[in-house]
Design goal:
The protein has 289 residues and is mainly beta. Helices cover 13% and strands 41% of the residues. It has a single domain (74-278), classed as Methylamine Dehydrogenase, Chain H, CATH 2.130.10.10. The protein has helices at 88-91, 158-161, 175-183, 198-203, 243-252, 268-271; strands spanning 8-12, 15-25, 30-35, 40-46, 58-59, 65-69, 74-75, 92-101, 108-118, 122-128, 136-142, 168-174, 188-190, 193-196, 207-212, 216-221, 227-232, 235-242, 257-258, 264-265, 277-278. One of its GO terms (molecular function) is metal ion binding.
């Protein structure tokens, strides 16, 4: 069975071109490609290292890659399943996947693809930069607390533990720089996939974090590529970031702090482009038309 969620059309120069459409299977970490010339499914890929997915599908502005990432963190060593919860920080990881697209067929080619290892937060919806933000990808996340529940044992429910922090983390990934690291061999191979380790991604400036609304669901890049809007399911506001501000903050290296895995966390006020908008009780999705 499958649980498909967020389809994405192929693009050229940041505009939809109607060649192919990709869709993720949230329940199983799979992705499918449909050829829009005949509306037939031509490929289904079981993406390595993903047990579930929500951060997809989104294509880069010229359909070089289609992106899909983990939702729930993945256990990195199956032989240690019995100690996964007591060693959550060490054994669990997320993965941001950039699947290379064959420009003639639209099919995904794993041998030209790569992943960026992520902290074991719960990665959510993603979007790809375009125009001024081309070369970057953005992923919401929640559960920066890294809670895993325990109400069956008399502890707190997952939802309580995962809602303690005032902010969750927007992931900012420089996938063009990640490409360079892959070409330079700064990867490890996990289940047949080239993976940039988390410590390398942090040290090389591939991955940065920006504080965002609590438990967000969706980050949407404006048609001009500069504005990113984020709504929080447990926060009544929509926050609008400026890519120009995020990029300036990254370049200045004036971080708020680093997370437990060494990933730089930017200052919230340095990255926000507009005053926060109060919008209903808890906006689930934001979307540009």
């Amino acid at each position: 069975w499958g649980d498909y969620h967020h389809p994405a059309l192929s693009e050229t120069k940041g505009e939809y071109d109607g060649r192919w459409i990709y869709v993720n299977d949230r329940a199983n970490g799979r992705i499918a490609m449909v050829d829009l010339r005949d509306f037939k499914t031509k490929q289904i890929v079981d993406v390595p290292n993903l047990d579930s997915s929500h951060g997809g599908c989104f294509v880069t502005q010229n359909s070089d890659y289609v992106h899909i990432s983990t939702m729930s963190p993945t256990l990195t060593d199956r032989s240690k399943a019995s100690s996964a919860l007591t060693n959550f920080k060490d054994l669990m990881r997320g993965y941001s996947t950039f699947l290379a697209i064959n420009q003639k067929t639209g099919r995904m080619e794993l041998d030209r693809s790569f992943q960026v290892e992520l902290p074991p937060y719960t990665q959510d919806l993603a979007d790809s930069g375009k125009l001024v933000s081309d070369g970057f990808a953005f992923i919401n996340s929640y559960n920066s607390e890294m809670a895993f529940g325990g109400n069956a044992e008399g502890g707190q429910p997952l939802e309580v533990g995962a809602s303690k922090n005032d902010f969750d983390m927007l992931h900012v990934i420089n996938w063009r720089k990640a490409e360079e690291l892959v070409k330079a061999g700064k990867t490890k191979t996990i289940n047949g996939m080239k993976v940039i380790p988390l410590d390398v991604a942090a040290a090389e400036g591939v991955l940065h974090l920006v504080p965002g609304p609590k438990s967000p669901h969706g980050v949407d890049v404006a048609p001009n590529g500069n504005y990113l809007s984020v709504g929080g399911k447990l926060d009544p506001h929509v926050t609008v970031y400026g890519f120009d501000k995020i990029k300036a903050a990254i370049d200045a290296k004036n971080y708020e702090k680093r997370d437990d895995f060494g990933v730089p966390i930017q200052k919230f006020d340095a990255c926000v482009a507009r005053p926060r908008l109060r919008w209903a009780s808890a906006p689930l999705h934001t979307q540009y038309d």
